[in-house]
Design a protein that fits this description.
elongated; 4 domains; two-stranded parallel sheet; mainly alpha; transmembrane helix; membrane; single chain
């Protein structure tokens, strides 16, 4: 049972107004930058990870794994160490963003500690117990604020929006614009979600941020479309080349058709020749030739008849030709006699 005093304390510290325009993108970018820089430069990360492991063991419920808290706790520690040198106003804004990240990275893992301040103080106490003094984690003490669900929901989607948008900007160049284009649907998705949320609460800082984001997004889309158009124009054939290519394709197609037809004709001739040879072998050298004898005799008889007719026609033609020549000679002779 959670004590009512704890619940009252959480409710009294609810962050009712968030200046989104002051958090994004500058304060948001500090978090990822701090993690990258400190992982490369800070010594004693193993000690920080050990301290976070002890924190995980202390706050993890029996149903959760303590190791789940090590990585997010380490990143939060690096961020707190990064912002300690900022001005008071920047630290105050950074601690508001830290409140969001603490909820996202720790509270969403269902720890035993109740409320952001309680979990944050638990982290500080454990670090003191193991005498970890490399980093100052007290920088946001008394400045961590509980987040309303609506505020957390907007911060979460803004976080995702700017992750995708910064990737789009990173790859938005002549060589990688296709990668940049792959992030456009996600940017549009999260922008739409946040815009719908703005219509519900009418937060003026959120409106300012969305207008600023939309302007920068449109500028990047103009660049992206220019890269696409340039690529398309470089790889398109001119109209004349297209017509030449079409005519060439047609002539190649016509030649192919002729080649196919010629090949088919040669094949049919060869096929008929093979059939004739097979029939001849069957007739001449096998017993099956007896079945062909009547047909062959009939064909011979028809051929002989045609030959006789041709001979008769030839003889008749020769006789007429002789008579014709004889008559001519007779006419000529008679003319000479006269």
């Amino acid at each position: 049972m959670i004590p009512s005093s704890v619940i009252d304390d959480v409710r009294s510290n609810l962050l009712t107004h968030v200046d989104y325009n002051m958090l994004f993108p500058r304060i948001w970018d500090d978090y990822s930058r701090s993690v990258k820089i400190h992982h490369l430069k800070v010594h004693g990360l193993s000690e920080l990870a050990f301290a976070c492991e002890q924190f995980g063991k202390d706050v993890a419920k029996p149903t959760s794994r303590p190791s789940n808290f090590i990585f997010p706790c380490t990143n939060l520690g690096l961020y707190l160490n990064y912002i300690k040198h900022k001005t008071y106003e920047d630290r105050r804004r950074s601690c508001k963003y830290f409140s969001y990240m603490l909820k996202r990275e720790i509270m969403d893992k269902n720890p035993k500690c109740i409320g952001l301040n309680v979990c944050y103080n638990k982290m500080i106490d454990i670090f003191k117990q193991i005498k970890y003094r490399r980093m100052d984690l007290n920088v946001c003490r008394d400045q961590v604020e509980e987040l309303k669900n609506d505020s957390y929901y907007i911060l979460y989607n803004l976080d995702e929006l700017y992750k995708k948008f910064y990737k789009l900007k990173e790859y938005n160049n002549e060589n990688h614009y296709t990668w940049a284009g792959s992030y456009v649907p996600s940017c549009e998705k999260y922008y739409k979600i946040i815009l719908e949320k703005y219509e519900e609460n009418k937060n003026s800082s959120l409106k300012t941020l969305l207008d600023k984001y939309k302007k920068e997004f449109d500028e990047n889309m103009t660049k992206l479309n220019a890269y696409k158009s340039a690529y398309k124009s470089r790889h398109e054939y001119p109209t004349t080349n297209k017509s030449i290519k079409t005519r060439t394709d047609r002539s190649i197609g016509a030649k192919t058709d002729v080649g196919i037809n010629t090949g088919m004709g040669s094949f049919m001739t060869f096929f008929v020749f093979i059939i004739i040879v097979i029939i001849f072998i069957f007739y001449k050298y096998t017993n099956y030739g007896s079945y062909l004898h009547p047909s062959v005799k009939k064909i011979r008889k028809m051929m002989n008849k045609k030959n006789k007719e041709n001979i008769n026609i030839k003889d008749s033609f020769e006789r007429r030709q002789k008579n014709s020549f004889g008559n001519i000679y007779h006419v000529v002779y008679t003319s000479v006699d006269h």
